[in-house]
Amino acid sequence: MKWALWSLALGAGLGCSTTYDPYYYDDAYYDPYYGAYDAAWSYAWIDPVYGSWYLSLPALPRVLRQQANTDPNAAAAQLAANANAAFTPAGCATATASGATVNYTFNNCTAAISLTQISGNVQVALSNNQGQLAATATSNNLSINGEPYTLSMQIVASPPQGDQRKVTITSNSFSPAHLDSRSNQGTVTWVAGSGCITVDSQAQSTRGSLSSTTTVSGYQRCDHQCPTAGSVQVHTSEGTFTTTFNGSNSVQVSAPNGDTRSFNLNC
Fold it and tell me: 157-185 as b/e, with b when 16 or more CB fall inside 10 Å?
């Protein structure tokens, strides 16, 4: 991810002495990126095996769904076999399944939604969470879009409602180039095979002595296009910073005093 290009628009705040740390503006820009990465990984790992996992389960009572003959080992084997379709160009990713665990090695790969220039190693462990498909992912020496990236997340899929897919995510994933820590919880929804996602989440992050809580609402993005909808609120000790998405390749983050900074989106 390139460093954002931003400029200060004075407007109504002309002459105001309030100065905010750039971290607060940056968080409104970067947290949706990391949320989109979480969503993209979820799409890559859950969408290909979702139908097989939940086949015929919607008609079953919950207690029977928990006892159904779901097989994490078979799902892992299916994901490994699907690597060339999920990550392009063909051959950029090698994936091997051992039991319910898939080990990936990436070399400058691209994946649906928002992932580009993926290089390094990722391990995904699938499991049966009371009948629901679950995955835990970690990384080693991973980079995304030219920056080092720490991947640490848990995904739990919900039972199907027609073609609608929904997962709940708990993630500590972020780029150490911009944050010291990030803890995120949220949901991602999509229509099977669509390449489009919607994200709603809340994250806590820190950089140095500063901290913030970021709420992302209705963030919508399709395959490597700019986000078409959604809003972000970054709650800090100095007030709330906000931005919205409308399909443009840039966003403006508004500070509590009305100042704005513009960021170019990498989409």
Answer: beebeeeebbbbbebebbbeebbeebbbe
